[in-house]
Design brief:
The protein is of the alpha+beta class. The protein contains 11 helices and 7 strands. A 7-stranded mixed β-sheet has the order 2-4-3-1-5-6-7, sandwiched between helices.
């Protein structure tokens, strides 16, 4: 005989303010976890783990002792397997948690002159279709990638950036990495993203830009060698065909340690009339 609905309701724990906050926080964590793995290599692996968990539950209910014993023997090793398989994703999560907004301000793009030099360089390279990849460091250090290139430790200037990415030059291939107001190194090797959902049209530079932003919280600026279009990459995501105004906004947001994705909506080169150009952008276009 089934118990009355009223008795079942009385046996349920009461929903308090603390319980509601607890549920909301857990829901946010689960949502962020799903957003993190969506479209990445971790998604099929987690689906496989979920299927095994369902199979284990069915085996336990159906009293399939042999199958349940085999799956139960694998459970103690699942934690180590998750760490090995998701090491890059876990590294990104921990690095984001470790960032704090109250940290002592370090080197960054604070001066308007630095932003202006970068804008003038990419404007010129875009006009003549010179391929370029510029990575601006943020909180997570890029020392490993800096050591893979040619050390410079030079002040940022339009002429130096143009010389680095001059076609046929020794430093043309690879990325230039900026730390604060200095160009730390050029011709740096970056990891390529393995995201299968990216557009097939994206070349090696764009994939390298996405790859480095998957590993760290840097901002990557790409100039296409084929089309001269400018793109931006941050947090494993890319915006293509952006305007100089958009680049300036993202650089400013990057320097303020805000999430670059929280900046204003993307502006493409096909929509220059939608925004009012700043003096920095106007000067960059005239040079």
């Amino acid at each position: 005989m089934f118990p009355a609905p009223s008795s079942i309701w009385q046996q349920l724990p009461r929903l308090t303010v603390t319980s509601a906050v607890d549920i909301i926080l857990v829901a946010v964590l689960i949502y962020q976890a799903f957003m993190m793995i969506r479209g990445r290599r971790a998604a099929p692996i987690l689906i496989g783990i979920g299927i095994l968990a369902v199979v284990y539950g069915v085996a336990k209910v159906a009293q399939l002792e042999l199958l349940r014993t085999v799956l139960a023997a694998l459970i103690p090793y699942s934690g180590f397997a998750v760490v090995v398989m998701f090491q890059s994703e876990l590294r990104r999560i921990i690095s984001r948690i470790g960032r704090t907004q109250f940290r002592i301000l370090g080197d960054r793009l604070q001066r308007r002159e630095v932003t202006q030099e970068i804008l003038m360089a990419i404007s010129k390279m875009a006009s003549v279709k010179t391929g370029a990849l510029i990575v601006v460091e943020r909180d997570v250090g890029l020392r490993t990638f800096i050591e893979s290139g040619v050390p410079l430790d030079a002040a940022i200037s339009r002429d130096l950036l143009l010389a680095i990415f001059e076609p046929g030059a020794a430093l043309h291939d690879g990325a230039a990495i900026i730390q604060g107001d200095r160009i730390a190194a050029a011709a740096c090797f970056l990891p390529l993203t393995m995201n299968p959902n990216l557009m097939k049209e994206l070349g090696t530079r764009h994939r390298a830009a996405i790859g480095i932003t998957e590993e760290a919280d840097c901002l990557a600026i790409i100039v296409s060698e084929e089309t001269g279009k400018i793109s931006l990459a941050a947090f494993g995501e890319i915006e293509t065909q952006v305007s100089l105004k958009r680049v300036e906004e993202r650089l400013a947001s990057h320097a303020r340690r805000n999430d670059p994705r929280a900046a204003t909506r993307p502006t493409t080169d096909a929509e220059p009339h939608d925004v009012e150009e700043s003096p920095t952008v106007r000067q960059a276009k005239t040079l």
